[in-house]
Each structure stands twice: as structure tokens, then as C-alpha cells.
Amino acid sequence: MDKNNIFGFNSSFYYFGLQHLVLNMYNYIKDGIDKNEKIYVCMAPEVYNELASYLSDIYGFSYVENFRIHKIISCYNKLKLNEIRAKLSKHIDEIVENGYSGVRFIIQADYMILSSSREYFMDFNKSILYIILGLKASFMSLYDFEDYLKHKYIIDDEVILESYRVHSHRLYNGNLQNCRGLSHSK
User: Which residues belong to any copy of the MEDS domain (predicted)?
Assistant: First the structure.
């Protein structure tokens, strides 16, 4: 796992199957907990429950919180970006005052797309870097690469290509790697 400060990163993880996702998110979340970060995850209930079954053996749930997608959608639809940023900044300040070093947000892309729309998710994802810039927060989007390779039902070419454009880092082989400047051809 990347041992450096990841605040300000808008990163991605491309997973192939539930166990691949759980194994990598377990390590990513454990790294955040070891750094005393609050972890907010927004995942399909069955994915969260599978992940939580492993995390509960090691940590209490004071570090990890599952938040509902509708909170994000409602806030993003009602407020301007600078208002969202100000609200998030205040929330992070409260978390830091409670003893955490910062926040990691993890969102399952296909879950958000199914709960809203592909266009909504892609617009939201483009805004993340501005929203978290300079805050003690990082953001990771999880992409179902199995769906992309086999069906393109939710995660299609447009979503994947846009993910390559908006994410500064990728979780690969247990480490966050800078992916700016990489060439991505179809």
C-alpha cells in the first residue's frame, strides 16, 4: 500500500469479481485505518456486507461508515460546487477535531450509476478533484471491470475512457500509482 499522504487524490480501482474487490479494499481500508483516517464507503449493500465481514474481525466500525448514495445525489443536485466543497470542508474539520487525520471516500461506480445515471456519475466524478483539493480527503471510484469486459451493461467504453481522464492515481498491485501522462487507446 502507498505509504505517502494520499489526501487530494482522485483515484480509481478496476476490479474483476467480488473477491478481487474485497481483498484490495480490505488492504486499502486497513491502510487508511492504520493512518487514523475515517473511511466512508458507498457500495451496494451486498458488497459492503461482504467487506464488513472481513473488517469486523480486526476493527470496530468507528473507523468505517457506509453512507447511502441518496445523500450524495441529493447534495450534488441541490448545491453548487463551492457550496459542496464548503460543507465537506466543515465536515472534515469536525472529523479531524474528533481525532482522525482525514477522510477516505470510496464509491462503487456501478452502484452510483444504477442509483442515478451514467451522465450524473460522470459529471460528479469530474468535479471530485475540485471538491477535495486542499482538504484532508481522498476519493476512490471502484469500477467493475468484469462487467466492462464481458457485458458493458453498466461500465461501458465511455465510462472507462472518462475514468482514465479524471483519475490521477490507480490502485494497482496494492499501491496507488500516478497515472497522469499514461497513454490510453481504445
Answer: 14-167
- Please state the domain extents for the chain: 10-178
Q: Is the model's pLDDT at 184 over the cut of 90?
A: no
Contacting residues for 5 by C-beta, under 8 A, at least 6 apart: none
Task: Compute the half-sphere exposure of residue 95: CA atoms within 13 Å on the CB side of its CA.
Answer: 23
- Please state the pTM of the whole predicted model: 0.92
Q: Report d(CA 168, CA 10) in Å as an integer.
A: 6
10-178: CATH superfamily: P-loop containing nucleotide triphosphate hydrolases (3.40.50.300)
- Count, residues in the chain: 186
**Model pLDDT for residues 62-115, shown as the tens digit of each residue:** 889 988 777 788 888 888 999 999 999 999 999 999 999 999 999 999 999 999
- Read off the C-alpha cell for 177: 500509482
